[in-house]
Amino acid sequence: MEKDLSNYRKSYEKGELILDNVSENPIELFRDWFVEVDNHFDIDEANAMTISTIGLDGYPKSRVVLLKKYTFEGFIFYTNYNSEKGKAIESNPNVCLSFFWHAAERQVIIKGKAEKIAENMSDGYFESRPRGSQLGALVSNQSEVVENRIVLEEKLKALELQYEGKEIERPKHWGGYIVKPVEMEFWQGRPNRLHDRIRYQLQEDYNWKIERLSP
Asked: How far is residue 28's CA from residue 33's CA, in Å, rounded to a whole number?
């Protein structure tokens, strides 16, 4: 089977990114972009991001997760610590996050180190989740082989009965990571493929080096 995609073309004309106008801290620019994208563009789940890890088999792997909080320290998401991504992070905490907001013609790429957040923070977020999502964290041995969907559905029914009228505690194998950035790149699509790319690199004095990259 073959399909030629060479004629798929788009002219990017919705914005610009000027070096003289950017913030000294990339988290501030991320905040401004995120708020603008979330409020003014038709994008479902603007907090959806791709996280790439280096697996135990030596291969990189990317998947989409949801950003749940960002601070000047970094970017927080939640997952099963025993999942494939959790094991990969335990082995090699160097990860890459990326956001692509197609309606705004913008992309953000973040290199950083992932580490577990404090247990009380994970507890607080778990308590805020819908009850079905809490039970889902108990049902799924994430990334493990399962015989069929019926197994999961039966396990969910059993847990619903077990926890009927009871508080559901966060399982210790489930919680949050914070990715602390060491490099962030902002990409704004421009006409004629002369895209704007601004890169921030964290220096030893904890200031950020800011450079324009060729598209």
From this structure: 9
